[in-house]
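Thanks for the sequence, V.! I ran Esterase right away. Repeating your input here for the record:
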Amino acid sequence: MVGMDPELEAFAVLFPHTDLSDPVAARTQFRALAGSVPAPDLSTLKVEDRTVPADPDVPVRIYRPHDARGAVVWLHGGGFVMGDLDTEHPWAARLADGSGVTVVSVGYRLAPENPFPAGLDDAYAVLTWVAENAADLGVDPDRIAVGGHSAGGGIAAALALLARNEQGPPIRFQLLSQPALDDRMETWSARTFTDTPWMNTAKVAALWRYYLGPTADGAPVSPYAAPARAVDLSGLPPAYVTTAELCTNRDEDILYALRLLQSGVPVELHQWAGTFHGSQAILSAEISQRQIAELCAALRRAVGD
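Predicted structure:
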C-alpha cells in the first residue's frame, strides 16, 4: 500500500481480514492474534488478578512495577466487541514495565450482549475503586490516569468526560491510542480508508452498531458513547493522542486533539506516518518499537516519578 512503512507492509498481509458479522467468531480470531504476540518479561512486575465490587463485579489485572507511584486505568482495544484481560496482557505488561506506572487493566463487558453504557460503567467503577483504594495499591491518588487503545481509547476519553461532569475521581492524564471517538464516520479518513489492514468501513459500522445498541436506530447518541459529540471539552485532563496514518479513526482523533487544544487542554499529538490501525502489534518493526516506547514515556512523564 502506498505510503506504508516497509517493515509493516511485509507483515500487513498476515493480519486477518475480519468483519464483525459474527462477534463470537471475531473474538476467537482476536484471541488467536493476541496469542501470537511474544510474551513480555514479567520479572520487574507484580501481577495480580482482582475483582472490583460493582453491579456486576468487574475483573481487573494489576501490573505493579517496583516503587510505582502513579497508576493508569487501562481499557483494551477490540472494537467494543472483542478483547479481555488475557488478550491485553502483552500490552498492559509492556506499558507497566516501560513506564514504571501501575497498570490496572479492565475486563469490561462487551457488546453486543452488553451495549453502551455497560463498558463505561465498568470503567468508572474501576476508576472509583482505584481512587478509593490508592493506599492499598501503593498509588498516589493525585497520580491517576486513564487510557486505552482503539475502542478502549474511546472509553477512556468518555471516562474523562464523565468524571469531569460528575465531579468524580480526579484524573491527571489521558493516554489515547488511536481512539474510537466518532460514530458518524464522516471524516476524510473514514470515507477514504475503507479497506485498510485490520480496519475497514464495514467493521467500523458494525462495531458502532453493536456498541450503541438501540441508540443506533435513531435516538440521539450520547457523548459518553462517542466523545467526539461532546460540545464542551474544557477542563479535561491533559492528553496524549496517537494516530495511525492509514486508519479510519485518524481524522476524528486529530480533530478531537485540536478541539481539546482550543478548549485550553494541554495536548501532545503524534501522527505516525506509514502505520495502520493496530500495526504496533508487529513488534519486529522499528516504528512499532518507537510507538510503544513513546506511549510508555508519555505515561511516565505524566504520572510516574
